[in-house]
Amino acid sequence: MVVVKEGNAAITVRKPLFYNPEMEFCRDVSSLAVVSIGAEGGKLNVLDAMCASGIRGIRYAAENSNVASLLLLDSSPDACSLAKKNVKANKIKKAKVVEDEVNHFLFCTPKPNFDLIELDPFGSPAPFLHAACYSLRNKPRAYLSITATDTAVLCGAHSAACLKNYQAHPIDNEFCHELAARILLGKLARTASAFNFGITPLFAISKLHYIKVFVQLDVGAEKAVDSMRSLGYVSHCAKCLNREWRAPMPAHLACPACKSQYEHAGPLWLGQLWSKQTVHEMQTLNHARNYKGKLQIDSLLTLISEELALPPTYFDLHKISKRLGVSAVSPDRVMDALRKSGFRASKTHFQTNCVRTDGKIGDVRSAVKRVLSQPRRA
Question: Is the full-model pTM beyond 0.70?
């Protein structure tokens, strides 16, 4: 048994069980997201549905004044025993630990009163989304914080499993991690709509082996329908790198630019991945905290704040340069060239050496060529 200090919590863990140190950054960012929704003044009853050591839920309660109560849930007796000790050691008030399987608990609890449900399973969260939405069905507004570690499935390495789990086709390409987040959100939107919920993604990241999304659910038939109208497909040409997105799937199966066969991903979420207000709140709150990854979090949030208003997908400059038969170019110089041509452009947190822009592939190619034709500044 060892004691681990993380954020405002100090917990006892039994290595290698019940604690993953690689996920500390994710827990930091998630805790910032939890307190950012406190700007509305509401208190949150939180369910950490797969609590293990309890570190995530305990941190939410210890770090955020808008957490009114905490329920830690796990199907493992050993995990629950450890979580109880950690709750007591951290003096978390209004906290309870329950041993049960997630879906059974969510379906069978007679009067659930959760405002935020944390789903952090091993692998796909898909089997738990229906029960989570069901348990929130009487709330006018609620939140889901979801982690998916089945990135090989979502990113297209196992497309049959993605079709089975998420009812969507992935594409294994340069922007597959963004598609993964959008496929996960598309699955959630379809599930939530059955309970009269529309969804608003507040925050999404891709890092290491996981996708993390933080989503607001609002009740209302019109809101549910609006969410359904935000679903569609991304079509991508692997030859010339052209892409388009729309709902429903484009009528043409060939790329209009080079006539090669399109690859299609979806159905998936085509709406915004981030709330500008939430990201701004998280940036402000991060400055006031002393997380070990504080500088890294600030860099991440700065990147996201720059890309959040731009269209889906981004362009890999290595691929474009290779197809043009030219040397690699600096993303900063390409972005500058795009902006001078009247386009918006930013980097993306999803992938290095990539540019997100409202320009098309031809505009990006032209920007790369202009950069190469200009002498480097001394």
Answer: yes
